[in-house]
Amino acid sequence: MTEPPYHLPVLASELLGLVGERQRVVDGTLGDGGHARLFLDRGARVLGFDRDPEAIRRAVTRLASDRLDARQASVYSPESLLAVRAFRPDLILLDLGVSSRQLDDESLGFSFRPGVPLDMRMAREGRPAADLLNSADAGKLTRIFRDFADERRARRLAAELVRRRATARFETSDDLVRAIRAALGPRSGPADFARIFQAVRIAVNDELGGLAEALPGFLEALEPGGALAVMSYHSGEDRLVKNALREWGATCVCPPKTLRCACRGRPLGRILTKKPVGPTADEIAANPRARSVRLRVFEKARDEPQG
Questions:
Q1: What CATH number is attached to the domain comprising 11?
Q2: Which DSSP helix (H) or strand (E) runs through 143?
């Protein structure tokens, strides 16, 4: 029997081909341990993080390795970053978003299947999605739908939510789906629901904010010659990562029209993926949720500049 999709590591061969035989790996989004197992099988040590306690329990049980140190925490937290630095990794891997198992667990509230509660919190911390949808003003809702869902009718959708919640609170997926259909029209369907629900999830968990703040720290924590590999499933995530890697790989980052370079004057490393790596047709057929993944990899400079 083939493994369930929860255990299929996305872009496995592409990732291994790019990062080589690295032996001290931080898996910042451990999940069920699919990617961690790739590196454990190569003899590596893995420091893994996940906010979901059930994910940590499953990964530890499934991998059963004394070379795995699994911690229930956001890899973006200051405490986690200290642990990453102390580990001295030569590879940091981030497989962003939520896992297939989380999407399929209706109690977590990520799905737009009928009757699912509007929760979307990755570790049951903070305010659930229902609270956000019932309290955020129209301006904030517009920004969420525009920036995180690339929705051109974001203002209309936000106004529809505000109108509807005046008479009945948003509680389940059905409430949000009905609002989407009312605002976007009867031809709106699963692709639209997926975009909007994803945008709400990103806002609930502050996924882009945490990523943006943590990326420089991850680069600093890497050993010379180490690599940062990021798999993103959302245009905002991918754009953020692309811009960071482009800046790190530039020789000069002075503002335009600066007459004399006053910045670091050297690249911090090199981009190993000139274009993002996507899934093959065979991988999409085996795991349709992998269709939007984009992998970018940056290798930190091996030597400090000579003064």
A1: 3.40.50.150
A2: helix 138-149
Report the CATH number at residue 139. Answer: 1.10.150.170
Residue 123 shares a structural domain with residue 183: yes
- Dihedral sign from CA coordinates of 76, 77, 82, 83: negative
Q: Which domain holds residue 170?
A: 108-205
DSSP single-letter state for residue 259: S
Band of pLDDT at residue 307, cut at 50, 70 and 90? very low
76 lies in the same domain as 221: yes
Q: Residue 300's beta-bridge partner residues?
A: 269
Query: For the chain, how many structural domains are there in total?
Result: 2
145 or 109, which is more confident: 145
What are the phi and psi torsion angles at 245 (to 5°)? Answer: -65, -35
* pLDDT computed for residue 296 by the predictor: 98
Model confidence over 142-187: pLDDT tens digits? 999 999 999 999 999 999 999 999 999 999 999 999 999 999 998 8
Quick one: tokens of 83?
């642990």
| 38 and 71 belong to one structural domain | yes
Q: Check residue 237 and give left, alpha or beta (phi > 0: left; psi -120 to 50: alpha).
A: alpha
For the chain, give percent helix, strand, coil, nearest 5: 45, 15, 40
- In this structure, is residue 278 part of a structural domain? yes
Q: Are 279 and 293 in contact (CB under 8 A)?
A: yes
